[in-house]
Amino acid sequence: MSAPKPLNISAGAIAGPLDSSVLSALPIAVFVVDRGHRIVMVNPAAEQVLGGGGAYLARHQLTDLIAADSQLIALIDQTLLTGATVVEYGIMLASPKVDDRLVDVRVAPYPDNADQVIVCVEERSMAHMVDHQLTHRGAARSVAGMSAIVAHEVKNPLSGIRGAAQLLEESVDGPEKDLTKLICDETDRIRNLVERFDVFSDDRPLDREQVNIHQVLDHVRQLVSTGSGSDIRFVERYDPSLPRVFGNRDQLIQVFLNLMKNAVEAVPAQRGEIVVTTRYQHGFKFASSGSRTRQDLPIVVSIQDNGPGIPAELHDHLFDPFVTTKRRGTGLGLSLVAKIIEDHGGLVEFENRRRRTEFRVHLRAASRDPQSDANLRLVPEERADD
User: What span, in angstroms and rounded, lies between the C-alpha atoms of 113 and 74?
Assistant: First the structure.
């Protein structure tokens, strides 16, 4: 058996079959461990996953950073024993230094060294984000189609029922009169609920302009703070250099009002905290509705709370209509968020981790040429994902 061949902990000084420039550029975490679970090499992405710099990680075994009974350790031991590459999807990587994360793992033998293995760890958030976005679009469209049917099939009969109840109310007394009032009240309640669907069937082109997203968030925060009536700590981490968003100010207020109100209702009564973050993300592209081209969505707005999180059984249906964890909720708030963000050609995603729920909205930046923005309209005639 050959002796271990430790590599320089710096990805920029790697010698041997692993190319340093490629490793440094990879967004996937790659690291090498030996038979004693000592960390021999990490690339920058792996430093983020393992929660430490290269020099720090070089002084530790992998079992110092994650639980010894972790599935990742079992996969590494399996490759060291058999010499075969193993792949596992959707395992939970838990570490005291970083948040728990769902990852895909590939462990392969190190070339020419049976005492070392190469570990590749890829977070599943990006794949889930794309999958969820397509699901959110489908949810928004299903609500749009349903709203048109509901308006026609429910609102018209309701008017007749209410009119009949009002006529009966004039000719009866006592308990019968109370029943007719009950009928009127219930038809009004159902009509109000149905009218909330109108926004979903509105497919007119958006009236958009250059919007300062920080002014939108400040406005929403003021509304939520005034109405919450509880001791909640708001933390704002804004990027002051962020360009303006190309969107509809009123609708963006509606989006972030829904998300922030949900966060307020989720945080604990004591030490509740909501963190609102804005940042510029280079290189993020996504196909907008009405186009097969991929456009930049560099502006990211994050709303994070320290509540108990979203039940796992709701993750795949969170943006569907009538899905809610609230006793008196209608389950339309997040469906409306999905619809508005789709109309903006953007993307909305959520991430649920231990003691942290985060919603992220990706939006298009306004052009320096206002006329270029004015010429852009989302025409729902041919969808990118059809």
Answer: 19
- C-alpha angle 267-251-150 in degrees, rounded to nearest 5: 95
Please state, in angstroms and rounded to a whole number, the distance separating the CA atoms of residues 259 and 334.
8
Sequence-distant (6+) residues with CB within 8 A of 101 are 49, 92, 93, 123, 125, 353
Report the C-alpha dihedral over residues 259, 261, 264, 266, rounded to 10 degrees.
-70
CA distance 197 to 60: 57
Q: Are 358 and 350 in contact (CB under 8 A)?
A: yes
Distance of CA 67 to the CA centre of its chain: 27
Q: Which residues pair with 33 in a beta bridge?
A: 39, 117
Sheet of 299-305, strand order = 232-237, 272-280, 299-305, 356-363, 347-353
For 245, 313, 368, the CA distances from 214, given in Å and listed in that order, are: 10, 34, 18
Hey, how many other C-beta atoms are within 10 angstroms of the C-beta on 354?
9
Three-class DSSP category at 107: strand
The CATH class given to the 11-123 domain equals alpha beta
Q: Taking the domains of the chain in order of start, what are their residue ranges?
A: 11-123, 127-201, 209-374
Q: Which two tokens stand for residue 212?
A: 């300062």
Q: Are 274 and 236 in contact (CB under 8 A)?
A: no
* The pair of three-digit structure tokens given for residue 309, joined into one six-digit string: 């999180």
Fold of 209-374: Heat Shock Protein 90 (3.30.565)
Q: Report the distance separating Cα 198 and Cα 325, nearest Å.
A: 23
Predicted confidence pLDDT, tens digits, the chain (386 residues):
333 333 333 333 333 445 566 677 777 889 999 999 999 888 888 888 888 888 888 888 898 888 777 888 989 999 999 998 888 877 777 766 666 677 888 899 988 888 999 999 887 654 454 555 545 555 555 555 555 555 556 666 777 788 888 888 888 887 888 888 888 887 887 777 666 555 555 566 678 899 999 999 998 998 888 766 567 889 999 999 999 999 999 889 989 988 999 899 888 878 889 999 999 987 666 655 445 556 788 899 999 998 888 777 777 667 665 555 555 545 567 878 888 888 888 888 888 776 788 999 999 998 865 555 554 444 333 333 33
